[in-house]
Amino acid sequence: MTALVTGGSGVLGQCLVRLLVRRGTCARILDLVPPPADDGEGAAAIEFVQGDMRDRTTVERACRGVEVVYHLAAGQRMKPQFRGMSEAEVYDMNVGAVANALAAACAARVRKLVFTSSSGVYGIPRTEPCGEDHPQRPLGAYGRSKIAGEALCREAVAAGLDVTILRPMSLFGPHMTGVFTILFEWVRRGRPVYLLGSGRNRVQMASAWDVAEACILAAETPAARGRAFNLGADDVPTVREQVEGLIAHAGTGSRLRPIPAALLRAGATILDRFGLSPIVPEHYLLADKTFVLDTRPAKEVLGWRPRFTNLGLTIDAYEWYRKHWQAHVPGGSVVLGLLDRLP
């Protein structure tokens, strides 16, 4: 069997490709950038196709001869390769990619397409836990593009394609980039850790390894057809407890420095207008909110069980970062540079 993994060079894609290869599946990666060099595990069963998901011909060629398509590819401004894009460009790119993936899957008569959406479709949560039927009020182009992508998936299901939608929380795993590597670098160096708000709220995360398992289960579960499932870790402590747990594990002497949430939002909003904010609205508008998903449907229908707790997945990702930090240290932000100079 051959499976296509779009965005297979990303955090989730790398974990999914490894799991597929271990199960004896040949994995074809379609991505803008090649997967990072690794230990060569299963290299003979991995094919890389470099291309843009907005090019329908490229996507159609990548879909030929595959049984399952895992559509993970998406752009968001916190990823280094998309940092210079506007919100409109992010939206158009992501929606176009979903449309091309679905069209190519139909043309190739694949058995299944699994679409990785996001918890970002919900915006600021109004309930705890947040179920799949929660109102959708996304905070940026990334979330809006996922809603549009889900609508295209439902149209494809009505036309006869077997599609399942997954909505994970923020992903942690090898090669991760973005706002959480800033936290890891502060902790690694024993620097002060600036907490966004008081930290009394609870924010669920998701291990890329656990979400990769859910992708495979979704492809193998007939009852998942046309369904959307939330994904996130169990055992979610407060943000303060989680960061304190990471600091205790690292043993580097970092100390917490909370920033009032209102001050953070005001400052980040101004900086974002000038392209200087190290975090995007989806982060600073949710800084002091509790965001926990109801994952019971995924457990009941898919038989999915996350192996990592919230703190466990954070420590696991930090340990990977600690060993490879030279190639992944965050930079390029004037604000982070100023914070780094503070005692």
Brief descriptors of the model:
seven-stranded parallel beta sheet; 343 residues; two-stranded parallel ribbon; alpha/beta; Rossmann fold; 12 helices; 14% strand; UDP-galactose 4-epimerase, domain 1; globular
Strand percentage lies at 5-15%
**Principal-axis shape:** globular
Counting DSSP E segments of at least 2 residues, the number of strands comes to 11
Helical percentage: 40-55%
Topology pattern, helix = H, strand = E: EHEEHEHEHEEHEEHEHEHHHHH
Q: How is the main sheet built?
A: 7 strands, parallel
Computed over alpha carbons, the radius of gyration is: 19 Å
Structural class: alpha/beta
Strand order of the largest sheet: 3-2-1-4-5-6-10
Q: What's the tally of helices?
A: 12
Which blocks of ≥5 consecutive residues have pLDDT under 50? Answer: none
CATH topology of the largest domain: Rossmann fold
The CATH superfamily label of the largest domain reads NAD(P)-binding Rossmann-like Domain
Q: How many separate domains make up the residues?
A: 2
Round the mean pLDDT to the nearest integer and report it.
Answer: 89
CATH class of the largest domain: Alpha Beta
What does this structure look like?
- The protein has 343 residues and is of the alpha/beta class.
- It has twelve helices and eleven strands.
- α1 (11-22) links the parallel β1 and β2.
In short:
This protein is α/β, with parallel strands linked by helices and 343 residues long. Helices cover 41% and strands 14% of the residues.
Topology:
Blueprint lengths: L1 E5 L4 H12 L3 E6 L14 E5 L5 H8 L4 E4 L15 H22 L3 E5 L24 H18 L4 E6 L2 E2 L6 H10 L4 E4 L9 E2 H13 L7 E4 L7 H12 L5 E4 L1 H13 L7 H4 L11 H7 L7 H15 L9 H8 L2
Parallel strand pairs: 1-2, 1-4, 2-3, 4-5, 5-6, 6-10, 7-9, 8-11
Helix pairs in contact: 1-6, 2-3, 3-4, 7-11
